[in-house]
Amino acid sequence: MDYVRKDVYSSVKIIFRIFILRSKGSIGVINELLLQVAQYLEAQEYSQMLVSGYYSWNWLEATHVLTLMISIGSLFIIDFRMLGWVLPDVSATAIADRLHKPMIIGFAIMFITGILLVYAKPVENVQSLWFRIKMILLVLAFINAWVFNSRMREADGTWDSALVAPKPLRTGAIISLCLWCGVVAMGRFIPYDWVDCPKVSNTALLWASGCVEQLNAL
Amino acid sequence: MLSNFLSNYRSVTSLAFIVLAAVLVEFFEVRASIYPSLLPFFEWLKYSSWIGYLGITYGSVYATVQAGHLIAMAIIGGTVLVTDLRLLGVLLKDIPSESITKGTHQCFKYGLSVAIATGIFCAAGVADKVYYMPVFWIKMLALLAGSGFMFFIKQPLLNSRPHSEIGPWTLRLLAVASIFIWFTVAATGRWIGFS
């Protein structure tokens, strides 16, 4: 049994290596292009001003984190209502409708401050595994939000005053909660240097983080 | 008459006594004399307690708990904003504010419990640093004020009678004070990371 397991493991490893070598052409080019754009941005005066100014960086980061209480706070209330954890005697669609505006305002502020934070440290972010996972989770969260909204509009409304929403909406709410918790966690991990390019020797991690120089040196 | 007043406004008078005691403690420099005696506790928290050990040894655990702290803050923020913006008449105007206040309070309590538990873990990992930070003590004071305000003034008052019988300016003041206190808690917490 152990032999089989070892064989499967080494086969997967070989397939992954082939995939990485093959993708060197396409994803490798994308990684190099991203790095070049990041290096160009980092050389700009405004980027350096943002990162070197004590108050500019701190204000940006603090605003980005504190706005989480408006955007993700509102989103959690909507998701919790779908699951029947809060406001049980208030219509679920009313909560979703009325909290939509503050949530969007919060996300807009987070988006703007987030772009400025990336602009301040572009090379560090482009080569951060956590930042890349965060971006993937963000895309998935927005797709989930879109599906969730269309399902809510399609629902006939008979469940509106019920304690919990129908199963598809509950599933959407749980997925949303998991994805946003993931986004927050990945955002929190970005400043840590556990998997920064110079510290990693694993090919898969180097590939996933987009460590162009280290991959070329292999 | 005094006993009648005290029984009617028990929560408010208790909180007023607590604030008065805090002012007296500051005035007679009791805090200044207690402060040095707290240092051994903070050193124990970092170097001898298991949460301090976990925080120092495993960076990934520390970062994960920090993320949990942020998520708890988001839950607190969501419940506080929904309740207070309703009291201010900005959000959910067509839904009775009594339903909003009652329906979010349980969630707020869970959020606060998680925020306190994860906050103790986060502080333990850097206890010898935060001890010397004024912003950390401001946050602790704001947290105490926020919890006291929520459990001894805001909730008892809002649950005591229909909101239509409470003065509109009292409701607005409650909401503004609540938003201000919890924003201070969150902002000072963020500033600890920069100090």
Q: Please, could you describe this protein's structure?
A:
Chain A has 218 residues and is an all-alpha fold. Chain A has one domain (29-217). Chain A has helices at 2-23, 27-42, 45-52, 54-66, 68-82, 92-98, 100-120, 122-126, 129-154, 167-189, 203-209, 212-217. The radius of gyration of chain A is 22 Å and the shape is flat. Chain B is an all-alpha fold. Chain B has nine helices and no strands. In chain B, 86% of the residues lie in helices and 0% in strands. Chain B has one domain (39-194). The chains are: A mainly alpha (218), B mainly alpha (195). Chain A binds chain B through residues 58, 61-62, 65-66, 68-70, 72-77, 80, 85-91, 94-95, 98-99, 102, 181, 184-185, 187-189, 192, 194, and chain B through 59-60, 63-64, 66-67, 70-71, 73-82, 85, 91-92, 94-95, 99-100, 103-104, 106-107, 183, 186-187, 190-191, 194.
Straight-line N-to-C gap of chain A: 34 Å
Which range best describes the helical content of chain B: under 10%, 10-25%, 25-40%, 40-55%, 55-70% or over 70%?
over 70%
CA-atom Rg of chain B in angstroms? 19 Å
Our count of helices of chain A gives 12
Largest beta-sheet details of chain B: none
Largest interface comes to:
A-B, 35 and 35 residues
The number of distinct structural domains of chain A comes to 1
Percentage of residues in helical conformation of chain A: over 70%
Tell me the strand percentage band of chain A: under 5%
From the alpha carbons, calculate the radius of gyration of chain A and give it in angstroms. 22 Å
Q: What is the assembly state of the chains in this entry?
A: heterodimer
How many strands, which pairing sense, and closed or not: the largest β-sheet of chain A?
A: none
Span of the ends, CA to CA of chain B = 51 Å
How would you state the average pLDDT of chain B, rounded? Answer: 89
What structural category characterises the helix and strand content of chain A? mainly alpha
Task: Find the count of extended strands of chain A (DSSP E, 2+ residues).
Answer: 0
Secondary-structure element order of chain A, N to C: HHHHHHHHHHHH
The number of E-state strands of chain B comes to 0
Q: Roughly what is the average pLDDT of chain A, rounded to an integer? A: 87
